[in-house]
Amino acid sequence: MPMAQTCSQTHKFFTERAKQKPQNGIRIFFFLRENGFYGSMFLPYHQSPRSRLLESLADDTELESVPHGKKGDPFTSSIPFQVLSWKPRTVLYPGFATPEQCEIVIKRAKANLKPSTLALRKGETAENTQGIRTSSGTFLSASEDKTGVLDLIEQKIARATMIPQSHGEVFNILRYEIGQRYLAHYDAFNPAEYGPQKSQRIASFLLYLSDVEEGGETKFPYENGSNMDINYDFQECIGLKVKPRQGDGLLFYSLFPNGTIDQTSLHGSCPVITGEKWVATKWIRDQDQDQDQEE
Ligand SMILES: O=C(O)CCC(=O)C(=O)O
Questions:
Q1: Which domain holds residue 170?
Q2: Which atom of ligand 1 is nearest to the CA of 277?
Q3: Is residue 111 part of a domain?
Q4: pTM over 0.90
Q5: How many domains does the chain have?
Q6: What is the annotated signal peptide range for this record (predicted)?
Q7: pLDDT string in tens for the chain (295-residue length)
Q8: In angstroms, what is the span from residue 218 Cα to ligand 1's centroid?
Q9: Where a domain ends, among 45, 80, 115?
């Protein structure tokens, strides 16, 4: 197969091959896009009827599924991903949402935008933290979204992370205009700075709802331990930088598997230089959020 094939041609190639000959084992494929290699995991299958809702979750994979547990899926999923970094653990999911889904979320968020706020550390006030996070935003919950788009996205995030949907906070939809930014920070709450925590943020999933002409990258200044030994200025856009592209998802873990905070998960948003940035942030916790709300 020629290396210069497009992503969809490559997917078609493997899908056709899968139809010709049933697969028995897990297969991991790599394919080339304009900005690097991507991996995709295909699981064994048998075909079964799928409801319309599940159809839209199941992507276009044709692989045979196996008998599943009570809340498992009757279909296989293929969610292409690219590991961007191991320190912090960061994964890009190209084309995670469709442009139409992104536009629906932007339209809903636009009506209720307010200046973004910060979780304050001991001694911090809204006044002395001005300028750290200059975007505007709103909180949207999937359960109140009549279009069903946010629920579909949440379900796909749960599949990609294998962390149940109920562990997610509601979406924080953000808009950055020219010059707006979010200085480097941690999403996890260090109890030494924030006091005792009932639950902790494990990971963050950012869904880019728009392209940005220039600027607006998500930055990881301490990626792979770099810049940790200099007097890093939290405004600087250095380290690993991820350019927003409409529909792409970016997952990174704030905690190590042992539950301690990964210092390399420091991240932020570079200022937008040209255009506008829209992103939906989903913070994922170690505790069931539905249970929390019932308490
Ligand atoms: O906008 C971004 O790229 C980063 C957003 C962020 O850091 C956050 O919402 O915690």
A1: 84-294
A2: 1
A3: yes
A4: no
A5: 2
A6: none
A7: 333 344 344 344 334 433 443 344 444 445 455 444 444 443 333 334 444 444 455 555 578 999 999 999 999 999 999 999 999 999 999 999 999 999 999 999 999 999 999 988 888 898 899 899 999 999 999 999 999 999 999 999 999 999 999 999 999 999 999 999 999 999 999 999 999 999 999 999 999 999 999 999 999 999 999 999 889 999 999 999 999 999 999 999 999 999 999 999 999 999 999 999 999 999 999 999 986 544 4
A8: 7
A9: 80
Reported residue count of the chain is 295
Query: Which of 80, 107, 126 is the last residue before a domain boundary?
Result: 80
Look at ligand 1, atom 7, and give the residue with the nearest C-alpha. Answer: 268
Ligand 1 atom at shortest distance from the alpha carbon of 172: 9
Nearest atom of ligand 1 to the alpha carbon of 242 = 3
What is the Rg, in whole angstroms, of the alpha carbon atoms belonging to the chain? 20
Give me ligand 1 centre to Cα 30, in Å: 29
Does residue 28 form part of some domain? yes
Domain CATH for 225: 2.60.120.620
What distances in angstroms separate CA 182 from CA 132, 136, 266, one per listed residue? 6, 11, 11
Residues in contact with ligand 1 (CB, 6 Å cut-off)? 174, 182, 187, 204, 206, 218, 267-269, 279, 281
- Calpha distance 16→71 (Å, rounded): 29
44 CA distance to ligand 1 middle (Å): 36
Shared domain for 242 and 106, answered yes or no, is: yes
Query: Tokens representing 250?
Result: 């970016």
How far away, in angstroms, is 152 Cα from ligand 1 center? 21
Note whether residue 2 is domain-resident.
no
